[in-house]
Amino acid sequence: MSWWSGLFQKEAEPKVDVLKDVQAIQESLREAPQETKTLLKELQKLEELEQERHVAREGVISVNLEAQAKILDTILQRYEFYQNDVDINGIRVKQVARELLRKARQAGLKELVNEKKKDMKWQFDW
C-alpha cells in the first residue's frame, strides 16, 4: 500500500531558506567585480588583436588568429562560469520572492499578494 501512496502523493515544495539564499547572492555579488575586471582585460586583449589583424600582413594573420582563439577560450570559460553564477542567483531571487508572497498570504496580506502578482517583475518571466 505504501508504494501506491507514493504514486499519488503531492510533491512537497522545496524548502526555501531565505537567509541562506540572500547571503549566497551577496557573496556572489561581492566576487562579481573581480570577475568582470578579468573578463574586461581579456576582451581588451582580444580587441587589440582584432585591430592588429586588420592591418597585419598575410603571414602574420594566422598567428594573430591563433592568439585570438586562445584568448577566446579563456573568455568563453570564464563567461560560462559567470553566467552560471548569475543564473543561479536569479533562481534564488525568484525563490525568495515566491517565499515572501507565500508568507504574506499566510499573514493575511491578500492585497499585497494580489498587487505583486499583477506586477510584471513578480511574474518571474525573466
Describe this protein's structure.
Helices cover 82% and strands 0% of the residues. It is an all-alpha fold and 126 residues long. The longest helix is centred in the middle third of the chain and has 49 residues. The chain is elongated. The two termini are 42 Å apart.
Quick recap:
This protein is mainly α and 126 residues long. It contains four helices and no strands.
SSE map:
Elements: H1 2-8, H2 18-55, H3 58-106, H4 110-118
Helix pairs in contact: 2-3, 3-4
Task: Supply database-style keywords.
126 residues; mainly alpha
Strand content: under 5%
| Overall average residue pLDDT | 91
- Residues in helices, as a percent range: over 70%
Q: How widely separated are the two ends?
A: 42 Å
Question: Which structural class is indicated by helix and strand composition?
Answer: mainly alpha
Counted by DSSP, the helix tally is: 4
Poorly predicted ranges (pLDDT <50, ≥5 residues)? Answer: none
Can you tell me the overall shape?
elongated
Rg, alpha carbons: 24 Å
Strand segment tally: 0
Order of H and E elements: HHHH
